[in-house]
Amino acid sequence: MQPARAADTAPLFETIAVSKSFGGFKALDDVSFHVRDGEFVSIVGPNGAGKTTLVNIVTGLLRPTAGEVRFHGRDIAGIGPVELARLGMARSFQLVNIFPALTVRETLGVAVASRLRRVGNPFRSLRRDERLQADAARIAEVLGLRPRLDTVASTLSQGEKKLLDIASAFALDPSVILLDEPTSGVSTADKHAIMEVLVTAAKVAGVRAIVQVEHDMDLVERYSHRIVALQEGRVLADMPPDAFFADPAMIAAVVGTRPQILKGRPDA
Ligand code: ADP
Ligand code: MG
């Protein structure tokens, strides 16, 4: 995936001056944010900065208190995740959102059935429907879960659960994918493996942009074309990784540590 140059394309999606209040508390304040074709964008910031709220607004799960949300130029504020998936946007959740009793094949089959608008009992369809079977197997293959097709989700490793959650988003055949902390709760080695699988899968599946919320700064630096840093609901920075990581104060604001702690970074 290579980002299009700024002048070449309109954003795939954007928020324009979005604010979101919960009661008297302003979780997002005047956030303008966009993603272009080919981009891998990381949203970073300390706990409570508003990252998940922004993802929820961009994916139509929450309606902004003020401002606009556009996908392919169309106002999608509060449209809801099902309708948005039909337009080509899919997401995974910060806390994995899988059904523990279903196998990998069943989980992906249900997602594919919803994309194909198969009505009725998706499990009966899955047994009978070769298209569903083939699609579920293809997506498992792309996300490295083929050997686990008949494994019950609850017995997968944490890394495999994360991949299954991501695979369910891929099953919707999206053009844009948003991932809320795709590697949280897994080992450093597994984090890198998940990111490699994700980036390769996006190429194979023709995903045009990836947005992730991520805390691991090594992953952010390695994979992002652009970093959007939130602090107390506002955009603190929106810049390429080389500019971001050249600024110790910026890193400190985002990670919530003092700059000298970062001296241990291999390239700091
Ligand atoms: P992050 O993902 O960056 O850690 P969130 O977007 O989850 O932050 O939350 C931002 C702020 O908004 C936090 O202070 C959180 O407590 C608050 N918040 C989020 N969702 C709600 C909600 N549904 N009701 C009330 N407050 C909320
Ligand atoms: Mg969050």
Fold and architecture overview:
The protein is α/β, with parallel strands linked by helices. Helix content is 37%, strand content 22%. It is built from ten helices and ten strands. The two termini are 27 Å apart. The structure holds adenosine-5'-diphosphate and magnesium ion. Adenosine-5'-diphosphate (ADP) binds at residues 22, 25, 27, 45, 47-53. Adenosine-5'-diphosphate is lined by residues 22, 25, 27, 45, 47-53.
How does the SSE layout of this entry go?
Layout: E1 13-22, E2 25-35, E3 40-44, H1 51-58, E4 66-71, E5 74-75, H2 81-87, E6 89-92, H3 104-115, H4 122-128, H5 130-142, H6 158-170, E7 176-180, H7 188-205, E8 209-213, H8 217-223, E9 226-231, E10 234-239, H9 241-245, H10 248-255
Parallel strand pairs: 3-8, 3-9, 6-7, 7-8
Antiparallel strand pairs: 1-2, 1-4, 4-5, 9-10
Bound molecules: adenosine-5'-diphosphate and magnesium ion (MG).
Summarize the structure.
The chain is α/β, with parallel strands linked by helices. The protein has ten helices and ten strands.
Bound molecules: adenosine-5'-diphosphate, magnesium ion
Helix content: 25-40%
Number of distinct helices: 10
Spatially, the strands of the biggest sheet line up as 6-7-8-3-9-10
Low-confidence stretches: 258-268
Distance between the termini: 27 Å
Mean pLDDT: 87
Radius of gyration: 19 Å
β content, as a range?
Answer: 15-25%
Largest sheet: 6 strands, mixed
- Structural class of the helices, strands and pairings? alpha/beta
Order of helices and strands: EEEHEEHEHHHHEHEHEEHH
Number of strands: 10
Query: Based on CA inertia axes, which overall geometry fits?
Result: globular
